[in-house]
Amino acid sequence: MGSNYYHLFNYDKALDYYNTVIELLNDSNRLIGDVYSHIGDVETSRYNFDLALDYYNKTIQILSNHNANQRHIVAICRKISYIYRQQNNYEYANLYEEQANEFDQGFPQLSHLYNERFVNYARNQADTHLNLSPSQQADRLYSIGVYLI
């Protein structure tokens, strides 16, 4: 439920649900790490970057203690890197990005694979629809740009 409220931009309600889950779980439960990650997302969306960093660091600590999937830790490292970039702290941003890259070595980001497929699709579409009007071409390019953002 918290995730649903988060995606509806109702951050207070999302936090209510996340805090309820934390109260129900004991401290040794691995799921608390996931909940802390979600709370970090909420705080990032609210621009409470220091609080978000606290929750993301708790997430990494819990997930590391439970031998969690490395991909999840990579995602958290990238979120932390993003926050440090927003705070113009490029030294720490680069440090966490490098950490993520070390964990992620040999595993390309899924989003990069999807983007590459989409770009190839868009090129094929552009080649097969050369007779589009200028407004249709602009619309197609706009759609491609929105997807890649």
UniProtKB/TrEMBL annotation:
The residue spans of each TPR repeat are 33-66
**Signal sequence interval, chain numbering:** none
Question: Which Gene3D superfamilies has this protein been placed in?
Answer: Tetratricopeptide repeat domain (1.25.40.10)
Q: Which UniProt keywords apply?
A: TPR repeat
Protein's name according to its UniProt entry: Tetratricopeptide repeat protein
Source organism per UniProt: Adineta steineri
